Amino acid sequence: MGKFDGFLICSDLDGTFWRGDDGRENFEAVKYFTRNGGHFAVTTGRNISHLRENKLDSIVNAPCCLLNGSIIYDYSEDKTLWEKRVEYTLCEFLEAIKPVAEEVTEFTMFDKETVFFKYTDIPENLLNMRSYKMLCRFENCEAADKFVTATTSMDFFKANSYISKSWDVGVEFNPIDATKGTAIEYIKRHLGSIHTSIGIGDYDNDIPLLKCADIGVAVGNAVDGVKKVADFTVNPCTEAAIKDLIEKIEKGIIKK
Fold first, then answer.
1. For residue range 88-125, what is the model confidence (pLDDT) as tens digits?
2. Per residue, what are the HEC states of the chain?
3. I need a surface site. Which of 8, 59, 218, 224 has the fewest CB within 10 A?
4. What band does 144 get if pLDDT is binned at 50, 70 and 90?
5. CA-wise closest residue to 62 among 4, 16, 13, 8
6. What's the pLDDT tens digit per position in 4-34?
7. pTM as predicted
C-alpha cells in the first residue's frame, strides 16, 4: 500500500507546472508521488507531441487531457482514448466571428499533432475542416476580454462551444463537452481506483478543471477567477507549486 493510493492529480502545464524553468523540483516530486501509489496526469491546451518533447510522458501514469479536453491520450499505450472536434468548419467559424474579429491578430487551428496555420492568410484547403480547438490571439488583454464577451453572447456558439482565455491575450474555442473539467471526470472513471481527484491550475481555461475535481487547487500566481473557485491555494509555479501540493497531501493538509 502506498501513502498516495487513490489520489489523482491533474495539473495544468504552463503557468502551473512550470514557467520559465525546467520544472526539475516538480518532476522529482511527481516521481515520488507516483512511486508511492499516486496517479498524475497533465491537463493542457498543448498537443500530443508537446509532452513527449518535454519528457512529461515519462512521469505521467494516467491518461492526459490535451487541447483543453478535446483529446484524452494514454501515453503508456500510445493511443487516443477519447476525442471531440468542434461542430463547425473553419469557414463557418470565421464567418461567425467576422463582426467582432477586427482586433484578432492571429488564428491557430489545432489537430492532434499539428498547428495547421499561424497566419491570417488562410489556406483554402482548411476552410472545410473541423479542428479540435481554435485559438485567437490579440495585441492586448482588453481586446481579448472584449472578444470573449462578444462571442459568448452569440447564439452560434452558445450551444456548442466553451470559450475561455488561456492567457491574457489568448482566447480558445473548444467543444462545450470537451473541457478540462470533463477530462478529469473521464480520467477518474477510467482509472476506477481513485477516491480523490485534485485539479490544479492558474488561468480561466482551468476553471472547469477545479470545479469538476473533488478538490480544486490554485497556484499562487493564478488569476482571481481561479482562486475564487479553488478549495486551496499553493505556491506560485515559480516556487515548485506541484511539489508544494504533494507535500500538503503527505502532511494531511489536503486529504481524502
1. 999 999 999 999 999 998 888 898 877 766 656 677 88
2. CCCCCCEEEEECCECCCECCCCCHHHHHHHHHHHHCCCEEEEECCCCHHHHHHCCHHHCCCCCEEEHHHCEEEECCCCEEEEECCCCCCHHHHHHHHHHHCCCEEEEEEECCCCECCCCCCCCHHHCCCCCCEEEEEECCHHHHHHHHHHHHCCHHHHCCEEEEEEECCEEEEEECCCCHHHHHHHHHHHHCCCCEEEEEECCHHHHHHHHHCCEEEECCCCCHHHHHHCCEECCCHHHCHHHHHHHHHHCCCCCC
3. 224
4. very high
5. 8
6. 999 999 999 999 999 877 789 999 999 999 9
7. 0.95
Residue keyed to cell 485534485: 198
CA distance 125 to 66: 25
Can you tell me the distance from the alpha carbon of 110 to that of 105, in angstroms, rounded to the nearest whole number?
17
Q: Residue 69, class by beta-carbon neighbours within 10 Å (0-12 exposed, 13-18 middle, 19+ buried)?
A: buried
Q: Which grid cell sits at 109?
A: 487551428
Cα 199 from Cα 201, distance rounded (Å) = 7
Cβ atoms of 199 and 43 closer than 8 Å: yes
Cβ atoms within 10 A of the Cβ of 237, count? Answer: 29
Other C-beta atoms lying within 10 Å of the C-beta of residue 198 = 27
CB burial string 202-231: b at 16+ within 10 A, e below: bbbbbbbbbebbbbbbbbebbbebbbebbe
